[in-house]
Specification:
The chain is mainly alpha-helical. Helix content is about 25%, strand content about 0%. The protein has one domain (about 1-60, about 70-75).
């Protein structure tokens, strides 16, 4: 799983309650998160149990959307 927060339509509003922030820390810097499938399944299990917030990524309709500055980015 590759996470591109720059293309998330709820970035900013939902970042404080997103599992990406829980896993990688506060937004900012030059992060390029990529989560392996088995780790994604583990995070989904934790979120399903209420132990971490769920991934709140809402991709924009255009996959070529410009990433926003100051967000966790994945290439």
């Amino acid at each position: 799983m590759v996470i591109d927060c720059g293309s998330c339509m709820v970035a900013g509003d939902a970042c404080g309650d997103c599992v990406v922030t829980v896993l990688l820390g506060p937004i900012g810097g030059h992060m390029h998160p990529e989560i392996a499938d088995e780790h994604c399944a583990a995070v989904a299990a934790l979120a399903g149990s209420g132990l971490v917030p769920p991934l709140r990524l809402v991709p924009s309709p255009s996959p070529a959307a410009e990433p926003r500055a100051g967000r966790h980015r994945a290439s």
